[in-house]
Amino acid sequence: MRSTRPSRRAASRLLPLTAAAVATLTFSTAAQAQPGGVGPSCDVDTNSPKELLVVSLAFQRAATAADPAAKTAALKNTMKELTNKADKWRSKNPAGYDMMLAQTLSLWVADETTPLVTTRGAIGATDLPTESIDLVDAANKAFNAVVEAEPSCAANVRALRQSEGWLAMTKKALDFSSSDPDSAAFYAQHSITLLPVDNPYPYQVLGIVAQRKNDIPNAIANWTKAIEASGTDSSYRDIRQSSLFYKGLYELQFAREQSGDEQKATLGKAVESMKSYLADFGASQDAATIMQGLAEAYVTLGETDKVASIYAPMLASPDAFSDYQLTMGGVIASQAEKHADAVTFFSAAIGKNPNQRDALRNLAAALYAEKRYDDMFKPLETLVAIDPNNVDAWNMFAFAYQGKAQAATVPADKKKYTDSLIVFSGKSDSLAVKLTVDEFQRNPESAVFAVSLEGNSDKPQANTLSVEFLDAAGNVVATATESVEPITKGDRKSVRLEVQGNGITAYRYKPLS
Predict the structure, then answer these.
(1) What contacts 296, CB < 8 A, 6 or more positions away?
(2) Contact between residue 335 and residue 298 where contact means Cβ atoms under 8 Å apart
């Protein structure tokens, strides 16, 4: 037996963002291209002089054209009318002119067949046709010119900026965020140029891009901007939630690499981010991860007394939370050495899901800390029945008997418990194959089970990993098997199983020999 006390699991480290993580970055119903036109507070007339009326009619044909080729032709005609002897009539209504120019250029930005930097002649302009034009920059300047000339039109211009061009740039940023960070950043910056305010999507993308490049400070800065841009708008609730989630956890990760006052300052920011997340999204499944992070931050700051406040709502009403959330609450209580609370949490989790492996193991550890050694055996018996090749499971029996031996006052009892300690310690050391669960992902209609197998026998033999996937009542929902060739002592093999089935919450596998 290599240790005399149960080891506490290390705090989980953050994983890199994956394609699946960003696949949920989608537009809300409100975040769509907005129609053209101006409201009653804006005095810009886009129908005067008569030349601008011609432009407006041409633009409407372009904006409503369903056929891409027809739309492109109509846009070229609109630009032709905008630049046809414009020096003779533009000064009669400069704000109206810039309003139509900005909207036309925004539609050009959305045109898939036209580069974002092209020539003026390529988009139908009759003046300076060979000169280069940056469509995004030119549209932005035209929008700015309208507001500079007519400040009362600021709200209208903001709505017009949320155009097809903005939508195209933002969608491309989101699409590339999982495959091409540089392209994602390129289009995200264009999205910001076209819609500088109340536009959280590109900042979320830029946060992901920075994180993938291991530029954590820049990632945090962009997630902060995404949160600010989301404000209290309910249509941006999902993006505010994900940005708060990543901001808090990566602030915590960044703080781990710091020390002194610098670390305290970063931890303070992490605490505020995670508290905000729990205040707004405390009922979400991811809240458990945030709770664990907040607990780590408090402990690192030396504010252990605040840890109990994190899980207090769960402790008061455990029935309102899932077995996973309750298990995480127990882990947090254990880290704060609130072992009695931990026992309550883990017991409640097992009440909801009797085969919850982490709750069973951690309940035994919490009971050990409470010196309730006899009570450890019931959860441990269930634990080794579902996870028979896990060294940790058998070692916990040894810890139970160690505690009983240390507490015994009768020599015969002390010897009996010591003998049992040796037996179970030997059991863990003699497993022919040691199994470590690397991942157990529970989805509504599927599950993923990934393990590492380590050979521990001088005479290895072939095995079949046979796993049953269970629901909360213990019923078998799905099964999976995989043949395992003999594993030489000290060598490792990874196995990953994926199954389909509703309501999978636990697993058990047959012993490997």
Answers:
(1) 11, 252, 335
(2) no
> Could you tell me the sign of the dihedral formed by the alpha carbons of 30, 31, 32, 33, in that order?
positive
Give residue 353's identity as a one-letter amino acid code.
Answer: N
Cα distance between residue 373 and residue 364, in whole Å: 8
Strand partners, 452: 436, 494
Start-to-end C-alpha separation, the chain: 21
Whole-number Å distance between alpha carbons of 62 and 114: 15
Q: Extract the tokens encoding 76.
A: 């070229």
Q: Strands 117-119 and 132-134, how do they pair?
A: antiparallel
Question: What is the pTM assigned to this prediction?
Answer: 0.73
Query: Distance (Å, rounded) from C-alpha 305 to C-alpha 80?
Result: 71
Q: Are strands 506-509 and 463-470 parallel, antiparallel or unpaired?
A: antiparallel
* Secondary structure (DSSP) of 203-260: HHHHHHHHHHTT-HHHHHHHHHHHHHHHTT-GGGHHHHHHHHHHHHHHHHHHHHT--H
* Strand partners for 509: 467
The three-state secondary structure class of 376 is helix
CA distance to 172, 174, 230, per residue, from 25 (Å)? 12, 7, 14
Whole-angstrom distance, CA of residue 288 vs CA of residue 276: 14
Mean pLDDT over the full length of the chain? 90
Q: Look up residue 112 and give its two tokens.
A: 């898939």
Within 13 Å, how many C-alpha atoms sit on residue 117's CB side? 3
User: What does 138-183 look like in DSSP terms, one character per residue?
Assistant: HHHHHHHHHHHH-GGGHHHHHHHHSSHHHHHHHHHHHHHTTT-HHH
Kindly state the tokens that stand for 309. Answer: 């406040």
Q: Which residues of the chain have pLDDT under 50?
A: 1-31, 34-36, 38
Strand 476-484 with 463-470, pairing: antiparallel
Residue among 426, 431, 420, 513 at smallest CA distance from 465: 513
pLDDT score for 25: 45
* Closest by CA position to 361, among listed 9, 10, 11: 9
